Each structure stands twice: as C-alpha cells, then as structure tokens.
Amino acid sequence: MSAKKPNPPSSLDAYYEPSKAFSKAARIPNKAAYKKLYNESISKPKEFWAKQAKELVWRKKWSKVLDWKAPFAQWFVGGKINICENCVDRHALSGRKNKVAIHWEGEPGDQRSITYDQLHKLVCRFANVLETQGVKKNDCVMIYMPMVPEAAVAMLACARIGAVHTVVFGGFASESIVDRLEDSGAKFIITADGGWRRGKIVPLKPVIDHALEKITDVKKVITLQRCGNPVEMLEGRDLWWHDVMATASTKHEAAALDSEHPLFVLYTSGSTGKPKGILHTTAGYLLGTYTTCKYVFDMRDEDIYWCTADIGWITGHSYIVYGPMAMGATQVMYEGAPNFPDFGRFWRMIEHFGVTIFYTAPTAIRAFMKAGEELPAASDLTSLRLLGSVGEPINPEAWTWYHKHIGGGRCPIVDTWWQTETGSIMITPLPGATSCRPGTATWPFFGVDAAILDDAGQECKAGEDGRLVIRKPWPAMARTIFGDKQRYRKTYWSDYEGIYTAGDGARRDKDGNFWIIGRLDDVLNVSGHRLGTAEIESALVAHPAVAEAAAVGRPHDLKGQAVAVFVTLKAGFEESDALHDELIRHVGEFIGAIAKPDDLYFAAGLPKTRSGKIMRRLLKELVCQGTISGNITTLEDISVLEALQAKVVAID
Ligand code: WTA
Q1: CA distances from 229 to 94, 172, 244, 336 (A)
Q2: Engineered SS bond to 256: which of 80, 425, 430, 623, CB 3.0-4.6 Å?
Q3: Which of 418, 500, 513 to mutate to test the pocket of ligand 1 (most atoms within 8 A of CB)?
C-alpha cells in the first residue's frame, strides 16, 4: 500500500450549504436570521426565553424568569406547569388526537403504532397505578426497561404525578442498580421481564432481584411482560404491569407542579468511580428540549422523526421523550441492536416508516461504514430530509460518508454538542442557516453563551485549544448533583467564577466554528504538547484501511505520556507489519510527528458500552498494567477485551 496521504484533509474541509429549498422552508432560513435571534437571546436572555415559554401550557404564569445565584439557577419562578400535560394531553385533547406518537418496532419484528390519544390513556392509567401503589409527589421511582413504549409511559406517568424518575440503562448490571438505589433512595421500581437484543433475551427482572438481595427496603416492583422469560415474583412486593393496568382508570388529572419541581435524576460517570446523579427540574428542561427540537430539528407535524438513542441516556430523555413529544411529533422507536439481523436494519426501517429526520451517534455511523455502503444502497432513503449526530466528535470521514450514503448528498447534518448536565443541545448547526463543515458542531444555540478559555480565564484566540465553558445560565441546565451540592459546585463551577466548565477541550477556527476535541480527562500530554485522543483517532480513521480507532495515554519516562492506539480494519484489509508502520506514519503526517503513536495494536473489535461508547478507560488499564482490574459491568462483549489483552501482553 502506498504511503501517499489518503483523503487529504483539504478534501474534507469543504463547507456544505443547505439547499435553497430547505432554507426557505426552515424556521431559521439564513445566517442573518440566526445572528439576529442569537444576539437578542444573549443580550436579553430573560425576554428571549419568556417569549419562547409562552408556547408551553402553563397552569399558572411565572412571576420571575430567572433567579440566578451562581451556581444555582431557578427558572420561571412562581410558575405552575406539568411536563406530561405538555407532552401528551395538549396533543391528545386537540387536533393531534389521532396522530401517531410512536411507531414502535421490536427487535423480532413486531410493531405497534400508538396515537397521542392512546398514549394519553396509557399514561393516565399508569399514573393511577403509581398512586394506588403508594407513590407520592417527590418520591423517586427507578425505571429499568428495554426500549418499549411502556418505558416512555412510565417516565411520563411519574412526571404527571410529580414523582422523580431515575432511568437506569438496561445494560447496567445489578451492582450499578444497587449504587443507584442507595444514592437516589428509590423505593419503587418499574422493569420488564427482559428485552430483545441480537436475537437473545436480555433478562432485566432477574437483575433487579439480584440487586434487591442487598437493598431490602424497596416497596414495589412492577414488571412488564415483554419476552415471556421466567421470572420470580415476590408476593406483596412484585406486581405484573398487565394486572395493575387492567383495572386502572384512563382518567387522571395531571398535578400542577412548581416550575422547579424535580423531574429526574440521571446518573453519569465522573472522574471518580462514583456516578453523579444529575438533577433536572421541570419548566426549564421542558423549554430547552422543546426549543431545540423546534429550531435544531426544525420539526414539523408531517415529520417522522427517529432518534436511535436508548431511553436510559440523556439523549433518550431529551430527544425521544420530552422534546419531540412536547412538539407533538410522530417518532419511531426501536427495541434492538442496529446489526440484527444485519447492518441494513436501520435503513429498512427508515424506508418502511418514511423517516424524515434521523439522529444517531458517530460510533454507529462508523460501524455502518465498516459494514459497507451496499446496505444503505439497498433501501430507499429518499424520505430523509435532515440528519443528526450526537455523543462524541464526529470525524470528517464519518460525516461525509453519512452525508453521502445516508443523506443522499441532500440532507444537512446537525452535529449537536451537549451533555447530560446541559439537558438540551448547546452547540449545533441550525439546518437551514448554518454552513456545515465536517467535524465541527459549528455555533452556539440561542441563549448559549459558549466560549473557550485558557487556564488564566482569558478567551482563546482562533486555533488555540482551551476549555469549553458556558458563561450564562440556560433553562435546561442541571440544577445540582443529587444530594451533593458541593460536588456540583466543585466539578462544574470552580475553574472560573460563575462560569460552567463542560470538561471538554475545544478550539474555534478562524471562521468561529467550535471544534470539540474531546474530554479533557482524555487529553494527553506528550512532551509538553497537548493531544486530543479524539484527534489521533480521527486521523487514523481518515486512513482508508481503518474502520475505528481508540487512543489512550500511557506513562513514558521521557515524554511524560506516550500514545497507544487500537485500530480495527475495514473489510478487505489485512493486518501486516507494513500497514502497522504506515498507520503510524500516517498519523504523523496528518497531525504532526508529535502525535505519532508509540504503540499500535490491531484489534478485531474495541471494548464498548452497550450504548456504543468505546471504553478507553479499559484500554488505558490494559496498556498501563497489561491487565484489567476495573469495573467492566457495562462492557458489551467481554471476548473483545480478552483478545486485546492477549495481544498487548504478547507484544510487550
Ligand atoms: C461528548 C451526550 C463532540 C462530549 C449528549 C460531552 C460530543 C459528552 C458531542 C457528553 C458532539 C457529545 N461533538 N463531542 N456533537 N456530543 N459529546 O453526557 O465530550 O453522555 O462532554 O451526553 O459527550 O456525554 P453525555
């Protein structure tokens, strides 16, 4: 293979403009309109958000838009509202009554379509069930379910009565459930017997049972029958969903709750082993998710929207449940794996349901790239009009592949940067207005005062790396870490006075676009030079032979840190010494000699969580210690790690 630099970056540097027709139909049709509204939202944030908030259904209007005592914000103080009413009742009791809210597809191929009217009845019934079982306002309810409509019903029913949900991703093991039950104090659990994934039943209720051997004060466990796998039911504690729902009334009055009433706690990993319970509240979160759906996805009544996230993550909370439903959208929900029975599943579903807006993660896109473009080519994807990306920086190669092979070269791509803590999308193109450039999330959303600061708190110049911060409060911001105000203040608000630090490194280019380099905790320091692991990975995947790459640091006597990379190859490429050397050289040519990996391992697969994030922590342990001692409960496939371990040990 030639050492000639493949895919020269200049070819990926191009700007992509939305079509004239797309822009003309969009709510924000050009850059001038974006700039005007953005400037207004920053110079007069209270007026801006108050105007947006008028589109929601309120029980009582607020008396004060914002009360800000850094780092604690209160939005729409004095207002009364119910988020479930905004997401369900307002549509069910109006012209959207018979509009489909959810087209659901189970992994085995079973399908259900649920209208807003039907959703309303389900939610009312389940709210009645919760109350009958003793759940009260402010009680915490844990939800541990597969991707079924009932998961959304459970969340909405909690919100309806003012209970606080904490959804735990179905891939977490019982030890994680124990931690979260202890931290949240939840006494009620909603689960299912199991869910389908890659043709197999993933048991859920048995995992709960195992956790409840340690936590003995849970009062009720309600179990949905999904797969029919055998489960044990403890008399007095355990109830079947279908039994309790059978007799529940479809009438229920949503509670009028304070704007700042707690809505949910969602756990996310921090720099320490103990997960942080990120607390979100009602009105501001609703407004943030609603407004971003309106402008970023430019959602219309006729759209069929599909976000492939799991409900157990923030993306599922904000962009499956609350945002799209507040907009009265029709959406697709899918239970299983993207590659069951093959990597063409999503494309066939897009054709079948006529999906118009598709929102997924770069890691998935890279897997699709690896599987080959014949799969999307076999389905009719012409219904699509807009694509989205979230979760990690999207490398320009994946971006251009997504644009060409999924979007048919005609769909804008919104690369949305945000976090569990931010609640809603923060930096993003607006699809009718922004010139998109592969790899950058472009510009801040309305009301988001984003900046990049150096260690001294000065704003970085174009091209300089720094810390991504938000300088003004925004409605959907986290309110605290549940039960730990000090940790909240220390983690996010202590680098600079009164300013939110996202924990991500970033830089702006000369045109002002924000480029997210990756987590600062993943940033390496090699001979005094900072290197984003994401940058090295992006360089590697720019090589035509590479499907996916992960870079980690390991201690190095001379340089401080050395770079170790793991790469998986695309179909049709063979591992060889020549390719090994070529890839190392390629990174040097792409970024600079300093970034050249010291170690490069070929891998058949990379260790990932069930949501598809590469577990770099494990790779780091592997290269630093030659073995794994940390927690691997969220790992998707243990054999991947075993194979890598054998390689690392063999080479060392
Ligand atoms: C990363 C997911 C670059 C980032 C919504 C952030 C991104 C972390 C992007 C939050 C993006 C998310 N470009 N990086 N478009 N989106 N990230 O809490 O490092 O699961 O801090 O929220 O993902 O991950 P979280």
Answers
A1: 40, 19, 20, 17
A2: 80
A3: 418
